[in-house]
Amino acid sequence: MAKRVKKYEESLHEDLKDPKEAVAYLNAHLEDDDGEGDTEELFLMALRDVAKAHGFSDIATKTQLGRESLYKTLSKRGNPRLSTLASLLKVMGMRLSVQLEPRQPTDEHAIVVR
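Request: output the structure for the sequence above.
Response:
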């Protein structure tokens, strides 16, 4: 009996339909700064995966962007405006957010044990 194996992309897109999974996926790509300067490109590719999971045509219609424009915006060389990112995230049930950087202890505030 032959095993049926889901393709990785199909499984990913199925998972990314869940808003919690999509948020975690996007945040992981934002936090994955390996010092090579490709975080922006990786985030756009991740956002493209989430958009594919929700259906490019549907997203394009809801954001009033043409399908081709959406593909270009989310390409490796895409340079979306903040308003475009906010609109894309909104139609997929998400929003932009800013958080404080976790504090690292400094010498000034360090506790010294003797």
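Helices lie at 8-16, 19-31, 39-54, 56-63, 67-73, 82-91.
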